[in-house]
Design a protein that fits this description.
alpha+beta; 3-stranded antiparallel sheet; 5-stranded mixed sheet; about 25% strand; about 250 residues
Length: about 250
């Protein structure tokens, strides 16, 4: 049984008030009880150490797992990126192949059209020829008034058969008309066209700076497509402000 004592000059003396006595300074335990407390203390220390070791182990496992997950994610992302890269290269190669194939088919189509129309040189000819160019009266509204101006209208035959869709023909014809050739002149420039205006004559007059060009330049405008089933080719009709210059021989019909 435990004893509550106070330390004196010659030893320890029991106190009357037990552990709550103000003079109590020490507790005397039986050896068996003291050893039990020591064992309990040692067991608690061991449990604490074991818990700490377990916690440290779990933290290390979590860190290792996190690193492993990160590594796998990085490898997965790298593999996916490499696959996207391969697909992109493959798509670019396929696009280049298809473009080359398309250009080759268009070249063959143009050469056949040139041969059919007896245009020479068959391989180098653009395939565009001037069918007609005539002066016409063009009526337009200026406010409440109806006015008339003389414009020129040119019909240009393309090398693209009426088997092409309207969308295909429009794109190919516009590209062909604006494509620069070896002399750095595009097709409409060879005909003496200075500018291309994407609108109508009355639209041009609404812009003073553009309208000033009417005096000194040949301006092309109001482009329309026509499928000429009689000859079997798409044609483009456009208006322009001045007569064509000397049409190159190879573009005359």
């Amino acid at each position: 049984m435990s004893e509550f004592v106070r330390k004196g000059m010659v030893g320890y003396k029991p106190v009357a008030g037990g552990q709550h006595d103000p003079e109590c300074s020490h507790v005397i335990l039986p050896l068996e009880e003291y050893e039990g407390l020591c064992q309990e203390r040692d067991r608690a220390k061991k449990e604490q150490q074991a818990a700490q070791l377990w916690a440290d182990s779990e933290v290390r496992k979590a860190i290792a797992q996190g690193k492993d997950n990160l590594k796998r994610a990085e490898n997965t992302a790298k593999t996916a990126l490499e696959e996207v890269g391969r697909q992109l290269v493959s798509a670019q190669e396929e696009a280049a192949y298809q473009q080359g194939l398309n250009e080759n088919l268009l070249r063959i189509c143009r050469e056949r059209a040139n041969s059919d129309r007896k245009l020479k040189p068959k391989k180098e000819h653009s395939g565009f020829v001037v069918v007609s160019s005539a002066e016409k009266e063009y009526r337009y509204k200026a406010g409440k008034n109806l006015k008339t101006v003389r414009l020129w209208e040119t019909v240009l035959q393309s090398p693209y058969s009426v088997d092409f869709t309207e969308e295909q023909a429009r794109r190919l014809i516009m590209e062909g008309m604006l494509q620069a050739y070896e002399d750095d002149l595009c097709l409409i420039e060879k005909l003496g066209i200075d500018e291309r205006y994407q609108g109508r004559y009355e639209d041009l007059l609404r812009h003073p700076d553009d309208a000033k060009q009417l005096v000194r330049q040949n301006i092309m405008m109001d482009e329309r497509l026509r499928a000429n089933y009689k000859v079997g080719y798409w044609e483009v009709i456009f208006s322009h402000t001045r007569a064509l210059e000397q049409v190159p021989k190879e573009m005359q019909r």
